[in-house]
Amino acid sequence: MSSTSILRAQGLSKQFSGFAAVQNVNLEIAEGSIHALVGPNGAGKTTCFNLLSKFLEPSSGVIYFQNRNITNMQPADIARLGMVRSFQISATFAHMSLLENVRVGLQRAAGLAHQFWVSSRVLRKLDDEAMGFLDLVGLSTHARELAVNLPYGHKRALELATTLAMNPKLLLLDEPTQGLGHEDVQQVTNLIQRVAQGRTVLMVEHNMSVIARICDRVTVMQRGQVLAEGSYAEVSRNPEVIAAYMGDSHEEVVA
């Protein structure tokens, strides 16, 4: 993990009709790290995540990506810079094959981003690279299947493969284990750890066992503000964090 920050927010705030959802948040994401943003319901973590990924405009504050001010940029523009996000609900092209889904992620780099009418012959030159990403997430044997037929855990893996095909420098994951059963949670956790090699990951996540296992640093939010930050071991033993977030589950969390 590098000491250099790839993403930095200073004084980040967001108000909705006078309600302060995020208040004066300062945050740094170290290059090469897996960083989690957590907090109880209503803590402001999802709003903060949406501000950082530019799906919401801040009321005040500044956001830097690789020392470039992106505060006033649009999500598509920062994606081109290498900052790419996923969503809580799996977003795949249901009636396209897995291979075709990943090819969509590759088309921009190939200069074909908006040319959905090009012949399959032209797009086939992307197949080998697309298969590489499917293999990375364990789906290469399903390459010709339609995405609509995948179980939910595999859809999350496919979404991650498509996101990786866009060659992100910073991967933002919104509740990647949301709605998954225990076995799928383990698989997706292993997958995130594997694809994080050589990349930076910022994730909003509710599953503390996942965070304890793979995250280098954790930022805990409460009432729109940063309550604590550090390693999982540090924040899980912070009395304020225990009171605000972990409550009675503390013994289970730190076990």
What is this entry, summarized?
The protein has 255 residues and is an alpha/beta fold.
Explain what the structure shows.
The protein has about 260 residues and is of the alpha/beta class. The chain has two domains: about 5-90 and about 170-255, 3-Layer(aba) Sandwich (Rossmann fold); about 95-150, no CATH class. It contains eleven helices and ten strands. The protein has helices spanning about 45-50, 75-80, 100-105, 120-125, 125-135, 150-165, 180-195, 210-215, 230-235, 240-245, 250-255, and strands at about 5-15, 20-30, 35-40, 60-65, 70, 85, 170-175, 200-205, 215-220, 225-230. The strands form two sheets. Strands 6-7-8-3-9-10 form a six-stranded mixed sheet, sandwiched between helices. A four-stranded antiparallel sheet has the order 2-1-4-5, with helices on one face. Strand 9 (about 215-220) and strand 10 (about 225-230) form a beta hairpin. Helix 3 (about 100-105) crosses helix 5, helix 3 packs parallel to helix 6 and helix 6 (about 150-165) packs parallel to helix 7 (about 180-195). The radius of gyration is 19 Å and the shape is globular. The model is unreliable at about 250-255 (pLDDT under 50).
